[in-house]
Amino acid sequence: MKRLCVLCLLLFHLSAFAQVDSLSLPSGSDIGFTNFAKGSGAAIDTLDVGDRRIQIVLKDDNTWYFIKNIEALAEDELFTGYWNEHVVNPYTKEPFDSIRFRTTICLVDSVSRFVCPHQGKVFSKFGIRHGRPHTGCDIPYPKGTPVYCAFDGRVRLAEVHRGYGNLVIVRHENGLETAYGHLSRIDVRSGQWVHAGDLIGLGGSTGRSSGPHLHFETRYHGHAFDPQWIIDFESGTLRKNAFVLRRSYLSPYSKYVPQSIDEEEEIYMSEEQIRAEEERIAKERAAMKYHTIRSGDTLSGIAKKYGTTVSKICSLNSGLKPTTTLSIGRKIRVK
Ligand SMILES: [Zn+2]
After folding, report:
1. Which of 17, 50, 67, 191 is least surrounded, with the fewest CB atoms within 10 Å of its CB?
2. Coil, strand, or helix at residue 270?
3. How many angstroms separate the alpha carbon of residue 135 from the centre of ligand 1?
4. How open is the CA angle 163-164-169, to the nearest 5 degrees?
């Protein structure tokens, strides 16, 4: 997550730079340095941005756009850690205390967009309902209504699950997971990469349901929080581009509070606070070290090489145990 936030900052700076650039330079044909037929918009080159997951494609009309490198994304710990295609919450072994008090989540940026899964009025809200936790929002619709993926990501689970009926859970690059329950038909399979706006399935009333409705959840590290913090379902829009998720929201007892002042304060932190936060993130990032597994590598050998211990390395890599077979080419965090 921290790496993704840094990425957001980087993209912000890049887009700011590109705007200045296009204002101060005449277009290529005006000053005659281009060898390309202008305006066809054909891609002519790609640029790395220091993050394998993103590349810039340059076009012959002097514009550019970002693309995602799916192979690099697939290797990211976000899509390898706690990955289970049959369990709703695979994070049960992760201690709640390890979640930060406050996490900034980029919901949309230069490479990511949002599509409302289904626009409509929330009939039953997130929270305690009849003494039981209700971990999502219910939005009624006629059976067969198309349900769309909210953000880009990878389908983690797509199958029948007790109360949920036909259920799809998608893990997103922003660190969130979204869940779509009671579907009459599932149109994706686990492991599939999806974009915001892709068809997830059709609405229905499977599982514990009293009528056709979308049961929609937003989860962070397995813990559900009120989706209305980020989505206004009636207008089908995001409430904000960047969301400051507090750890305290990760409970069925915590509900979205419309126009809460605290929320504003969280986003418009003082310069000093932002600088301190950025310095902390940069420090953490600088301290991180990765090792790519080569033939003959053992965990104890790697630990010795980097002056650490096997158990410390395991604690830095979710799912890694001292007995895990190391596949060549895998990247593990060592510091
Ligand atoms: Zn529900």
Report:
1. 50
2. coil
3. 7
4. 145
pLDDT confidence of residue 262? 52
Rounded distance from Cα 138 to ligand 1 centre (Å): 5
Condensed to tens digits (0 to 9), the pLDDT of residues 156-181 reads: 999 999 899 999 999 999 999 999 99
Q: What is the dihedral of CA 202, 135, 170, 15, to 10 degrees?
A: 110
Residue spans of the domains in the chain: they are 2-69, 79-256, 257-288, 290-333
CA of 177 to the centre of ligand 1 (A): 16
Residue % of the chain over a pLDDT of 90? 45
CATH architecture of 290-333: Roll (3.10)
Query: Structure tokens of 153?
Result: 């990501």
d(CA 198, ligand 1 centre) in Å = 22
Query: Domain 79-256 belongs to what topology?
Result: Glucose Permease (Domain IIA) (2.70.70)
To 5 degrees, how large is the angle CA 1–CA 228–CA 85?
50
Please tell me the distance from the alpha carbon of residue 35 to that of residue 81, in angstroms, as a whole number.
46
Counting every residue written for the chain, the total comes to: 335
Q: Report the separation in Å between the CA atom of 221 and the middle of ligand 1, taken as the mean of its atom positions.
A: 20
79-256 against 290-333: fold identical = no
Task: Please measure the distance between the N-terminal and C-terminal CA atoms of the chain and give it in whole angstroms.
Answer: 16
8 Å CB contact between 303 and 309: yes
CA distances to 140, 196, 199, 216, 232 from 203, rounded to whole Å, are 9, 17, 11, 11, 19
pLDDT at 27 over 70: no
